[in-house]
Write a structure and sequence with these properties.
This protein is mainly α and 308 residues long. The chain is built from 14 helices and four strands. Helix 4 runs parallel beside helix 7 and helix 4 crosses helix 9.
Length: 308
């Protein structure tokens, strides 16, 4: 398997040129960019398949903001943020957080949230005061974790609080974001520069905290070192795997110290890409190496995590 550098600014395939789109679709793209304030990287990749792009824009608009909707748009956006966090999609968390933090005036979407408002929303212990909204969140969380096993009590609570059209709409919001999250994370869509500025919510920090809480108590005994650099999507994925397992690790930034870079190159037999991961002093490679161990069922044992 070929190792990739994974810079945030580098997609795994080149972005398509909007000028190559049919005129009608260019208009839809321009409207999308106007509402967002920028053209999302995901759309620039979807442009390689204009028919799919058209379908996804229409589906997104219908599920999230259509005038025919039976649920409040703000509620759907909050549910989208929570589902994206549960699905471990930093790209979509960043987008939903950015939208929630947008201004309440003007043509774009926005609910005036602060960073702390978003952090509170995405806290696993968050419980809305409104009973109907609380029922929506209980369903969204359960359906995201395991759509085949939503507890009957959650279903009963939901159907008592919502009308049938609202139930269907909420289920479609949850399902839509599961699809979006899986697409965007599987092809490593880079977070846009516009979201890495002043309005960006620190999604990596937040998801790392949540994963660490979820895995609290995991008894990992190995010493783990990971060489990284700023903006590396594969580095953040490797760290998130470790955090999700409750594994403490030492992060060594090669872009901050040339000595650290040289040490990594020497220890990894000349490799210059990041991440490079060492467990108890042994080199396992990068994200590809970690995934290979996981597929073989050997990662937990190597990390010193006792099987339950």
């Amino acid at each position: 398997m070929t190792e990739r550098t994974g810079l945030e600014s580098d997609p795994i395939i080149p972005y398509a040129d909007p000028a190559d789109l049919p005129a009608a679709l260019r208009s839809a793209i321009e409207s999308y960019a106007q509402r967002m304030g920028f053209l999302p990287n995901a759309l620039k990749l979807y442009m390689h398949r204009p028919q799919i792009l058209k379908c996804l824009i229409e589906l997104n608009n219908t599920v999230m903001r259509d005038a025919s909707g039976h649920l409040d748009d703000g509620l759907k956006r909050r549910v989208a943020a929570v589902c994206s966090a549960l699905n471990h999609s930093p790209y979509c968390v960043a987008h939903n957080a950015n939208t929630l933090k947008g201004g309440v005036e003007g043509d774009g979407e926005g609910w005036g949230y602060s960073d702390e408002d978003v952090r509170a929303l995405l806290d696993p212990e968050f419980e809305p005061d409104d009973p109907a909204e609380a029922a929506c969140f209980a369903f969204a969380r359960a359906a995201t974790r395991d759509p085949s096993d939503v507890p009957q009590a959650v279903i009963t609570r939901l159907t008592e609080a919502l009308t049938p059209p609202q139930v269907i709409e909420l289920a479609c919001v949850v399902g839509f974001w599961r699809m979006y999250n899986s697409i965007h994370e599987s092809i490593y869509v880079p977070v846009e520069d516009e979201l890495l500025g002043g309005r960006d919510f620190n999604t990596e920090e937040l998801l790392g905290e949540a994963a660490a809480r979820a895995a609290a108590g995991a008894a990992a005994t190995a010493k783990v070192e990971i060489y990284t650099k700023s903006g590396c999507s594969f580095c953040r994925r490797a760290k998130r795997v470790l955090e999700g397992k409750g594994v403490a690790f030492t992060e060594l930034r090669v872009d901050e110290d040339e000595t650290t870079l040289n040490a990594m190159i020497e220890r990894s037999n000349g490799r210059r890409t990041v991440p490079q991961i060492f467990i108890d002093g042994g080199h396992i490679g990068g994200m590809d190496g970690m995934q290979a161990l996981a597929r073989a069922g050997a990662l937990d044992a190597k990390l010193g995590i006792a099987s339950s």
